[in-house]
Design goal:
The complex is a heterodimer.
Chain A lengths: L5 H26 L1 E3 L13 E5 L4 E3 L3 E3 L1 E9 L5 E7 L5 E8 L4 E8 L2 E7 L8 E8 L9 H37 L3 H17 L1 H5 L4 H6 L14 H8 L10 H23 L5 H19 L11 H26 L1 H19 L2 E2 L2 E2 L7 H18 L2 H6 L1
Parallel strand pairs in A: 2-5, 4-10
Antiparallel strand pairs in A: 2-3, 5-8, 6-7, 6-9, 9-10, 11-12
Helix pairs in contact in A: 2-3, 2-7, 2-9, 3-9, 8-9, 8-11, 9-10, 10-11
Chain B lengths: L1 H27 L6 H24 L2 E3 L1 H31 L6 H40 L5 H26 L2 H29 L9 E4 L9 H10 L4 E3 H23 L9 H8 L1
Antiparallel strand pairs in B: 2-3
Helix pairs in contact in B: 1-4, 1-5, 1-6, 1-7, 2-4, 3-4, 3-6, 3-8, 4-5, 6-8
The chains are: A alpha+beta, B mainly alpha.
């Protein structure tokens, strides 16, 4: 390498580094700006909390404050340089601090504090653990803008739902293989008995499965929705063959076998792809709503399982899926909109109670056995749940 | 008064040292013409810090603690990167001094000198915001008594004076020794800045291990004493050092020093007529 060119190369590297640094730090600085509390006395704080630090004392003018932006005005009345800390309840994690408070100087510490227990500490001489006292931040109803704990709750929820999706796809693959084997072998009675229960695993995670635009029609297309020229495969193809309408010409053994094989292959492909799918809080929230829309669109009308009439199995599975997504987001939702969480809880329970009335053995009544009033009742409960459920995503994510 | 003086002194030294060594380097290598750029970098950093500090103190918006720590810690670590690059650049160009290739090197020095502006700006800027916030607080307090501000400014002035003396002092040192030792000093200082940056990020909760101390000598070296102040101001020595800080310091200083010394001493074995070849080997 020619030595004399290297400084130039390094210069560019240095300059690039500086640009990267500037672009990284500046937005951070701007995003982290927060109101100086003394400028808006009508806000959550009535002026700064006064702290006086001396060699032996750390006087804090209040022992509690409402959550939101807090300002501590820390005055050093001692002779040594002091520091002031706000520590988390464990006394270890620094929530905020201000250093270099010289004698006679007052410095402000501004922080955004969610409700909880804290410890304040002055450190005259800048060493040791400091002079500590307990401090409580009470929930003011106003939400802190920076809330690491909330993010943690959301992340946990997403992780749990991801595990749920994995579990359901595994059961779906196992169930589908069993169903396909029975169907291909011409064991119609066994295939019929497995049909609705196996499909429940699919219906529970339908929004995730539907995110793969090519697999969904292969697995779940209904005859009425087929595009011209589209080859009809999947569950509903088998359904029509197993629960034949009048005048239906049954498939040959070879055709059945092909359908069964394809069903298993597509389901395995789905399972592989869901392993790498990235879920997030908004996908959970929107997915829950999609599942309920699915109920309103296909199940309440009885269109989904037009031959088997097992719509209530799908109905239950869609509600299960929506409910699990909601439950996973609930801890975060309770922090941001507790009223919505309570409302959703109540409406899920009401719908579930109504569904339970139609339970029969391990399964449900056939949809064509339900009276008009019963369908009406289910439909009304689905609608009343759909309305608050549409607010879930915005409440958790924004 | 004394305490505020010491804060000013410490913050001043932290900002001054790297700039002083760069100044001495430029003077020694006969590139005094580049000094205004260095000062421009310093000027920009001071102006930005003072302005930003005033805005945050008197304006309607403040900066959260997390942001302050992340800015200080982030800038420190970037500064270390640039100082390291500078040290090796200096070592390389110093070797070509007096040779016929001088003019070509100066061409490139011209380009690289813009890097100098950045180094100077970062060296001052990383401590600038914190110092500015402290100074404005002292200025606010001057309604009650002028001594805090006076003490702080005196501390800064003494730091500048010490810097000037150091500058004069190192100018007297013999040329080849000067280049070696400036580099060594810069590597050690940069190691301190890195450890300090790591500590800032630990305090901000971005890095773990704030309470795992490698050693705590704050009883023997109180941070508020004059010698504690000098150690902190010059080497960024913290009497209570976490394991992560200590590890960062060791992992930075030892390999960088090794490569620096190797780059510096090896070319001397080569004939002076072939500086380009020597550089090629070193790099």
């Amino acid at each position: 390498m020619p030595g004399l060119t290297s400084p130039k190369i390094r210069r560019t590297a240095g300059a690039r580094l500086a640009v990267v640094a500037a672009t990284a730090v500046l937005p951070l600085a701007l995003a982290s700006c927060t109101d100086n509390a003394n400028a808006n006395a009508s806000g959550t704080t009535d002026g700064p909390i006064q702290v006086t630090s001396t060699a032996a004392e750390c006087k804090v003018s209040a022992t509690e404050a409402p959550s939101g932006n807090l300002t501590f005005a820390v005055k050093n009345d001692g002779t040594e340089v002091t520091e002031f800390y706000v520590l988390a309840e464990d006394g270890l994690r620094i929530v905020a601090e201000v250093e270099n408070i010289g004698p006679g100087i007052t410095r402000n510490l501004v922080l955004t504090a969610p409700a909880g227990k804290y410890i304040t500490a002055c450190k005259p001489g800048m060493k040791g653990d400091g002079i500590r006292a307990d401090f409580t931040v009470k929930d003011s109803g106003k939400q802190a803008t920076v809330d690491a704990d909330l993010q943690k709750l959301v992340d946990t929820g997403v992780t749990q739902y991801t595990a749920y999706v994995k579990d359901q796809t595994e059961q779906l693959v196992a169930g589908t293989k069993e169903f396909a084997a029975a169907y291909a072998a011409g064991d119609a009675a066994k295939a019929k008995s497995l049909y609705a229960a196996t499909r429940m695993h699919w219906e529970r995670i339908e929004p995730v499965a539907e995110s793969f635009g090519d697999l969904d029609p292969k697995l779940d297309a209904r005859e009425a929705d087929l595009e011209p020229g589209q080859k009809w495969t999947g569950w509903h193809r088998a359904e029509k063959d197993l629960f034949p309408p009048a005048g239906y010409k049954a498939l040959t053994a070879a055709e059945r076998s092909a359908i069964a094989k394809q069903l298993v292959a597509d389901t395995e492909e789905l399972s592989t792809r869901t392993r790498t799918v990235e879920l997030s809080a908004d996908k959970l929230g929107n997915g829950a709503k999609e599942l309920l829309d699915e109920v309103a669109r296909g199940k309440v009308t009885g269109e989904e399982e037009i031959w088997s009439h097992t719509d209530l199995w799908d109905f239950q599975a869609n509600v299960d899926g929506a409910r699990i997504a909601f439950e996973n987001l609930k801890p975060a939702l309770q922090q941001k909109d507790a009223a919505l969480a309570t409302d959703l809880d109540a409406k899920f329970s009401a719908l579930q109670a109504e569904l339970k009335k139609h339970a029969k053995g391990d399964g449900f009544a056939y949809y064509n056995e339900l009276s008009k009033d019963e369908v009406q009742q289910l439909s009304a409960l689905v609608d009343s749940l759909g309305e608050p459920l549409s607010k879930l995503t915005a409440a958790v994510v924004l | 008064m004394t305490a505020n003086f010491l804060i000013g002194l410490r913050e001043g030294l932290e900002a001054t040292l790297i700039v002083v060594l760069l100044m001495a380097y430029l003077t020694k290598s006969g590139r005094r013409a580049l000094l205004p750029r260095l000062w421009a970098g310093v000027g920009i950093a001071v102006a930005v810090s003072v302005g930003f500090g005033a805005l945050l103190t008197f304006g309607p918006r403040g900066l959260t603690f997390e942001a302050q720590e992340a800015i200080g810690g982030g800038l420190s670590i970037v500064a270390v990167g640039l100082v390291t690059w500078m040290v090796f650049w200096m070592a390389r160009t110093a070797r070509t001094l007096g040779s016929e290739l001088r003019s070509r090197v100066d061409d490139m020095a011209d380009g690289a000198a813009w890097g100098l502006v950045l180094v100077a700006a970062l060296a001052v800027g990383r401590e600038g915001l914190e110092t500015a916030l402290f100074l404005w607080a002292a200025a606010q307090a001057s309604g009650e008594s002028g001594t805090p501000l006076f003490g702080a400014l005196l501390g800064l002035a003494v730091a500048a004076g010490l810097g000037y003396l150091l500058h004069r002092g190192v100018l007297k040192v013999n040329l080849s020794r000067f280049f070696t030792w400036t580099g060594v000093a810069l590597v050690v200082i940069a190691g301190g800045v890195l450890a300090y940056g790591v500590h800032d990020l630990q305090e901000a909760g971005i890095l773990p291990g704030l309470h795992s101390l490698a050693f705590d000598v704050s009883a023997a070296v109180p941070p508020s004493s004059w010698y504690g102040t000098l150690l902190k101001g010059t080497l960024n020595f913290s009497p209570a050092t976490t394991w992560l800080e200590a590890a960062a310091w060791v992992l930075y200083v030892i390999p960088v020093m090794f490569f620096y010394l190797r780059a510096n001493f090896r070319p001397k074995l080569r004939p002076a007529e072939a500086p380009a070849a020597a550089v090629a080997v070193a790099s």
